Amino acid sequence: MQVNIKKAGKSKGFSAFTAALLAVLLGLVFGYIIMTIASPANSFLGFQKLLMGGFKRIGDVFYYATPILMTGLAVGFAFKMGLFNIGASGQYTMGMFFALYVGFMWKLPDSVHWLVCVLAGMIGGMFWGLIPGIFKALLNVNEVITSIMFNYIGMYLVDMLIQGNATMYISSKTRTSYLPASAQMPSLGITNSSVNISIFIAITAALILFVVLNKTTFGYELKATGFNKYASAYAGMNGKRNIILTMAIAGAMAGLGGAFAILAPSTIAGSSMTYEPVSVIAANGFNGIAVALLGNSSPIGIIFSALFVSHIQRGGTLASLYGYKPEIIDVVIAVIIYFSAFAMLMNAMVGNLIKKLFSKNQSEKILPADPKEEA
Amino acid sequence: MDTFYYLIQNTLPVAIPLLLVALGGMFSERSGVINIALEGIMLFGAFFGCLFVYFVQSTSMDTQGILLLGMLVAATAGFLYSLLLSLAAVTMKADQTITGTALNMLVPAAILLFSKMSFNSDGITTNKNFYVKEVPALSEIPVLGKLFFQNTYITVYIGIVLLVISAIVFYKTKFGLRLRACGEHPHAADSVGINVYFMRYAGVSLSGILGGIGGFFYAVGVMNGNTNGHTGVAGFGFLALAVMIFGQWKPFKILLAALFFAFLRTVAYSIALIPFLDALNINQTYYKMLPYVATMVVLAFTSKKSRAPKAEGIPYDKGLR
């Protein structure tokens, strides 16, 4: 038994898992403290809702997990190569726009319409991810700055294009009109929830990325470049091509996320999801960063972290029954990311502490023997 | 000519926050820490500055005095918030970009939470106007008076003073030299007895102070003394990073870069007042994208031979010497 624990403790995946757990724990404790300060009387009930509320809305948890699972993959996949794709928001918005455009403007047979919309969203995101990749590979511009700038450019561009299109936009309601039913994704039929088949596509995408990263030459090169770009260049890997390719794939993932979010079926017949052009950068892109970090950038880990983040987001919405604002979840998520940035280190420190305690116990047992030997 | 005066008068209050925040970024990066949290630090400073103004606005205090005190509050807030970055990035050797992103995400959420609970709004709205119609005597100078001493904010003059102080500290003091050494080759700096951890804490703290002030000046000069958790500082923290790179991590080049960006932004927001641009009848959104597009174009041309501090972004580990 003891040997097993020791072995597990040494494995990399396990320590990443406990590190994420530690960060989540600290984030939740922080959230509880804030809730207690805000309104001490309800803090326990509110916190309970925050933790457990999601279980009563399983359909919604999966529905809201889908877009952040995709943006999480967009961030995590680029991270494997040492690129920080903070531009998932822009790629997500672009994907959403492309999907909307095809949904409204193209007349296609019902059976394939939504599929083409999804593909269009993927292409839109890919295009928006390609640009920072090209800037990084060919012009040596830091991808963090580029993708932030393209978040803003994309947001303004999409808002303008939507507002300028009379078929897509109802100016009196300041939102897009309802998508035709053929453009919406098939629902899974859970009552009062928009959960649809996109969650399966998203999980499949994560599995494909897992295979690409672990079983292909490209994935190997990508990770090698992430570990040490000079060594991989010396070994003859084409760094520039790989950077552009990685960013394009990452963008495609975020674009799919945008398409999934906007093409989801509505629970009310005859309506659909809508987009409001209000000049605010899509929050799902930033939540993707949280998801990717919590999942340690591993596609499999990201599936679970997306579900977790979505779960506490639902819980946070329900905590408003006790007068808590849903923003509390954004605070908790930010704190979790902050701690997860050095969770590995904290993890090692806690591990050492436990080891020290154990070895102290052992040495105490041995100690009495020593004086006798001396004597 | 009046249009020109108008553009310059409106450019300066926008340029100063960019300048100060970019200077802050310069101190941090030249000490070896990438400070992507500037956006969050700005908003944090702006929020506490405005909160202070909100509480004292009904007292009989002098308007410009309130501004100065608010500036100190914002600087303190920025300093304290930046300690979170130093703690993670210097002491705990965490990834600087991730930590910065977390700090950026925390502030808007916390502000929205606080404002919704205490004020039932998305931010803080004050009724103070810090606008200065004309500076006595100086505004009489022909041309210059009109350009720099009419329809302005005192933030402009404070900003210039802070620029000069920063440049002196950066180039003419022992402290500045040591700070720069820590960003280029921290192990060499350590070998001659410089405390790298302390210098990096100092660099990040200076960026916190300047970032907090910059954020408050943004709230004063651009937002009419208000802060809002939704729009925040509209990416000014990130623009400031671009300004810093464009300014090649050097104080006076940063001033020029900040003026360039602020001018573009001012043009974008006052199209209706510029007859020949208005006549072109281009959608205003294109102009709003202009500062961001210009950033990309500029970076594309300047990044190839980047003068970035060599050790930036790498946590200092004594054991690796």
State the share of residues found in helices of chain B, binned by percent.
Answer: 55-70%
Order of helices and strands of chain A: HHHHHHHEEHHHHHHHHH
Instruction: Report the CATH C-level class of the largest domain in chain A.
Output: Mainly Alpha
Strand tally of chain A is: 2
Task: Specify the number of helices of chain A.
Answer: 16
Mean pLDDT of chain B: 88
Largest sheet of chain B: 2 strands, antiparallel
The proportion of residues in beta strands of chain B is under 5%
Tally the structural domains of chain A.
2
List the helices and strands and how they pair.
The complex is a heterodimer of chains A (375) and B (321).
Chain A: H1 2-10, H2 12-38, H3 43-52, H4 58-79, H5 88-105, H6 110-139, H7 143-163, E1 169-170, E2 175-176, H8 198-215, H9 217-227, H10 229-234, H11 239-263, H12 283-294, H13 299-319, H14 327-341, H15 343-366, H16 369-374
Helix pairs in contact in A: 2-3, 2-14, 2-15, 3-13, 4-8, 4-11, 4-12, 4-13, 5-6, 5-7, 5-11, 5-12, 6-7, 6-11, 8-9, 8-13, 9-11, 12-13, 12-14, 13-14
Chain B: H1 2-30, H2 38-56, H3 63-91, H4 96-118, E1 123-124, E2 132-134, H5 144-148, E3 150-152, H6 155-172, H7 174-184, H8 186-191, H9 196-221, E4 227-228, H10 236-246, H11 251-269, H12 275-280, H13 284-302
Antiparallel strand pairs in B: 1-4, 2-3
GO molecular function (chain B): transmembrane transporter activity
InterPro entries (chain B): ABC_transp_permease
Transmembrane segments (chain B): 6-24, 36-56, 68-90, 102-119, 152-171, 201-223, 229-247, 254-274, 286-302
What features would you describe in this structure?
The complex is a heterodimer of chains A (375) and B (321). Chain A has 375 residues and is an all-alpha fold. Chain A has two domains: 1-39 and 325-362, no CATH class; 59-323, ABC transporter involved in vitamin B12 uptake, BtuC, CATH 1.10.3470. Chain A contains 16 helices and two strands. In chain A, strand 1 and strand 2 form a beta hairpin. Chain B is mainly alpha-helical and 321 residues long. Chain B has a domain at 15-234. Chain B contains 13 helices and four strands. In chain B, the strands form two sheets. In chain B, strands 1-4 form a two-stranded antiparallel ribbon. The longest helix of chain B is centred in the first third of the chain and has 29 residues, at 2-30. The N and C termini of chain B lie far apart (60 Å). The model of chain B has no long low-confidence stretch (mean pLDDT 88). The interface between A and B is large, with 43 and 43 residues.
